[in-house]
Amino acid sequence: MDMQVIPVKKGDFNLKDYDRMRETFSWDDMKQYFTWNHTGKVNMAYEALDRHAEDPNKKDKIALLYSAPDREEKVTFGELSKESNKFANILKNYGIVKGDRVFLFMPRSPEFYKAFFGILKIGAVAGPLFEAFMEQAVRDRLQDSEARVLITTPELLERVPQEDLPDLENIIIVGDLKDESDKYIDFKKEMEAASDEFEIEWVDLEDGMLLHYTSGSTGKPKGVYHVHNAMIQHYATGEWVLDLKEDDIYWCTADPGWVTGTSYGIFAPWLHGVTNVIRGGRFTPDDWYQTLEKYGVTVWYTAPTALRMLVSHGEDKVKNYDLSSLRHIMSVGEPLNPEVITWGIKAFNLRIHDTWWMTETGAQLIVNIPALEVRPGSMGKPIPGVEASIVDNEGNELPPNQMGNLAIKAGWPSMMRAIWNNPSKYESYFINGWYVSGDSAYRDEDGYFWFQGRLDDVINTSGERVGPFEVESKLIEHPAVAEAGVIGKPHPERGEIIKAFITLNAEYEESEELLEEIRQFVKTGLSAHAAPREIEVRDSIPKTRSGKIMRRLLKSWELGLPTGDTSTLEE
Ligand code: WTA
């Protein structure tokens, strides 16, 4: 196909006049600026990479600034475009076609991004998995998605239960193979041999692009399915909310195993052709400040947990670094404490802009933007093209200052299009035309939204979503544990920590060692961030007559709150 590149006209979507924009803006108007408007076909990888690689002024610009303790690498748009072509050719050789699921289970590295775009270029659906996942978490996701190919490292390979994954035909290994058998595909070798030319698979806006697994309060993790159309909103929010300009050095601290690390760690910055800092390895306050200083980061997207950690290390630490290039900071994932905003003004001389959205929403919806006044403690206002409200359980809108379900009028561009293999779960999100988020909030008279909490049992620990059911299921696999109920317990730095209540099987005695062993069992079997920090042994776990664990009751007991209606409690 002969592609005519029509660059998006930057500056057309200026949010200085937010109120007018809210009235006049329509997503359809925005589509005219993208290439697909002229061809009808699209590919995120083209818009985010190849378009810049074809532009003589952009081709040699640094796309990826990778930094890890033991490795530093710069990759230009031209190089990343060619390298991802190579990877797409590898996938093609192994018979991967449009719509197939190809998963990545590896730490952030240049190879990750090359492979990721290769997957999109062939029209396959990418499934990034957080590197901390252990066997159970990996099994659940690969089984449910029926992934045909997995890209991983020699270190993580042992957590991939290959015998339980009949659909997984090939494993591509990034790094030195311990086992020289031809059971695995060597990334490096195949990349060396592959052609760097590839005819991109042009897809429809509604074709699948990404599968992000996330947790709810019941059942296994759910595959949230996103399509190429999401790019419209990634682009728009990249301009309105991230405030990206041509020469920005942008850093999003999230891992691509979580939605922030794809929507805003990959798509938004690269749709704008901006240099993107990717940091591998573990984080410490000094490493973070060094990263900001060394690369001259101008726009920084991070999370409240991280910011609270920085606060606890004090303002003096900041003064050791020259952070003068920084001009815009944003936060997502949990409530952003007003005190952190106040601290940010002292420490960085900048406001920290809270943003609200979810895996299911694919992109930011309620935000603080540079052009608006920040009310510390509020998530801000909906972006143009998005209608947000507070509704009751029947989907009727509630007046200002009344708490209820935070809901969004269905139909924004980056909205999930399905829950993989689970249509009824997908349906259950929508009431009366509203997408109901599971968060409770209220809206003030001026249209600012204020987060109040989760309405379900989902735990948010250090900004990471954990489903209590997954943890409970793992706990009861331990021979000592008879029953388990898991809750989130408020914690000043982490937002919440995971607390488990368990009953022991008759032949087991409670001891420090046993509880630690159980904790380790979850940590090594499921994932580190899902391991309960506190375990309490009880004689029984409260359940409804139909056998559901009453986590609300456990939580009320834990927090010394009134227990409310317990009429369904089992005798
Ligand atoms: C919570 C992350 C308060 C919320 C992008 C939501 C927030 C869940 C905020 C989604 C915020 C996200 N203030 N709470 N600004 N942003 N949350 O799917 O409970 O990992 O439902 O997506 O995080 O988490 P998820």
Automatic annotation (TrEMBL):
Stored InterPro entries: AMP-bd_C, AMP-bd_C_sf, AMP-binding_CS, AMP-dep_synth/lig_dom, ANL_N_sf
Domain AMP-binding enzyme C-terminal span(s) in chain numbering: 470-548
MF GO annotations: acetate-CoA ligase activity; ATP binding
Cellular compartments per GO CC: cytosol
Domain AMP-dependent synthetase/ligase: 57-418
Keyword 4Fe-4S: no
Gene Ontology biological-process annotations: acetyl-CoA biosynthetic process
The entry's keywords: Acetylation, ATP-binding, Ligase, Nucleotide-binding
Listed Pfam families: AMP-binding (PF00501), AMP-binding_C (PF13193)
Domain of life: Bacteria
Statement: the UniProt record of this protein carries the keyword Magnesium: no
Entry's EC annotation: 6.2.1.1
NCBIfam families (UniProt xref): PRK04319.1
Family from the record: Belongs to the ATP-dependent AMP-binding enzyme family.
Record's protein name: acetate--CoA ligase
Provenance organism: Oceanobacillus piezotolerans
Gene: acsA
